[in-house]
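step: validate -> pass
step: tokenize input -> pass
step: predict -> running
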Amino acid sequence: MSKGMDSKKNAKKKPQKTLVEKRAAKRAKRAHTEDVVE
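step: predict -> pass
step: emit ->
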């Protein structure tokens, strides 16, 4: 839970991140979590 909230706070604090970077980060995070789960 805290991770999701932290990411939201960071996004609001630092809007310098481009949409592409955000998407890449999300993809990397998803792939990482999937690896951990499996």
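step: describe -> The chain has one domain: 2-37.
step: cleanup -> pass
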